[in-house]
Amino acid sequence: MRCGDFKTSYTADMTIFESRSARVMMGLFLCVLFTLPLYTPGFLLDIINRIGIAIIGAVGLNILTGFTGQISLGNAAFMAIGAFSCGYLGTRFNVPFYLSIPLAGIITATCGMFVGIPSLRIKGLYLAMATLAAHFIVEFLIVKWESVTGGVDGMSIPTPALGSYELNSDARLFVLIFVIVVMAVLFAKNLFRSKVGKAFVAIRDQAVSAEVMGVNILKYKLLSFGISSFYVGVAGALIAYQARIISPETFPVSLAIDYLGMIIIGGLGSILGSIYGAIFIKLLPELLRMVTTSLSGSYPELIYKLAAMKELVFGALVIIFLIFEPNGMASRWHRIKKYWKLYPFSH
Amino acid sequence: MDITFLLQLFINGLVVGSIYALVATGFVIIYKATGALNLAQGEFLMVGAYLCLNLLSKYQVPFWQAILITFAFAALLGAIIERVILRPLIGSHLISVIMVTLGLSSILKALIQLAYGTDTIPFPEVFPSAPVQIGPIPVSQGYLYAIGCVTVLVALLTSFFKYSKTGIAMRATASSQQVALSMGISVKKMFAISWAIAAIVSAMGGILLGTIRGGIDMSLSHMGLKVLPVVILGGLDSILGAIVGGLIIGILENFSGGYLDPLVGGGAKEVAPYIALILILMFKPYGLFGKKKIERV
How far apart are CA B137 and CA A287, in angstroms? Predict the structure, then answer.
């Protein structure tokens, strides 16, 4: 067991893996992760895929809200933009998935940067309201722009295929989704070791000082909106490929609130936190479903109240975390780890 | 242009707008006093409407008494929420306060759904329904009563803030918490009172909406988000602004519903207030009556 903190250089302080054992553990974890489809039943894999998509979205939102401090309630709309542009490219121009997913990300990033332009003038709760308004406007446009989006009926998405090899099962989608998850997490982790990421954090902590230190606020805020929307757009495109049929109702405001809940519960300004939060919030309805089905013998009406119960537990969790653990699961995990590292002799 | 149609839209807008004004007033009172953005305002409205409905149809309480009981309950609810949920978060980051009210709105919505289901429940008729002829157009009596109720409540609130000791103390708190504290005002108590008042005015808005629509369902909670354009237009910290803004947004909404919906095929009514919100934020971010706080970065 390692203990103590003996960093002597900045490079050592900034490494992702603090020791060789951590690196080995991560390698083992990835091996286990990517062999999951071999021995996991389909329905479980479906949930895991959803979690993977949620991780990408949550990391993206955390870059904007947790690291740059710009509150966005419009991420469901960005997700919709990603999903619909991916669907449009796929159905109209037969763009293969390995091009349509990044293209969907780029289109969403462009839209995100456009929404981000006013963020220089309006901030804090005004920005929250503006992004919420943007959500409703995008929703309206998606419903109205029938020639592209299919209107209220939505559109069906072609099966992603690599030549003649179709990604038509949960296991094949799993590989696609989790390759992207690993890339997304790795990029985000490295982003905050770089100049750009530090500029984001500086803007969050004290915008005036950041400006004085030579951080170009507009540029970095727009960049943050762009990167974050890229992530969210990619997540939207993956939702499209997973759900196969998308409509404006796939992306309600409550989805945006779910994602905010993920990063609050997981930990604002923490990549690891976004992952924990995404897993937790996506598992929550499944756990509730398990509990209610097991109780349905004695309380049969419980099953119809699942949606309401999910919302109740979600709201309660958000409030409890905000009051008792405002830094989220990531910080709690960190503290637990620290405690056990020095276990019987902690100071 | 058909003048009767225009007038009809105008009056509808005025009625809906007056309810927006009421709910927005609650929103502004909380923002002014505590600096918190209450995104659960729509759920307060919904809870008030359901409670009043319960009293009216289940316990057969007369309307005016039902309103008073609803007010008492709403005040209690508001104060408890402030004490239990909002007070521990005093001084924490903005996103925490926004998220905590979103969490609260989830909880209230879920509780109402668990108790009453998602179907529309008919609201008992409390105002006579026979329309009154005003000029060329017939106006439902319920509308007139609604506007009357809003006017009375706003007048009561205004005199409360102007003449009562508590009201003056609340204004002092809004102006400077530190000075208010040093003058012996319990700032925490003022916070609780402002949440209570906000819950009361929202509950009134819910009851009026119930009587006008003739039925209530979960969609009442959307009203809380509709209030955002109103408060942005009026200025986040101005009660007068909330009232003027409410009327303007209500009329704007009905006009765009009447004139734009046929052109675009529906939906313009819902989205117009939000387009207005973005435009106001771009050109006049502090609204019509808001206090300017200039910070350049």
Answer: 57
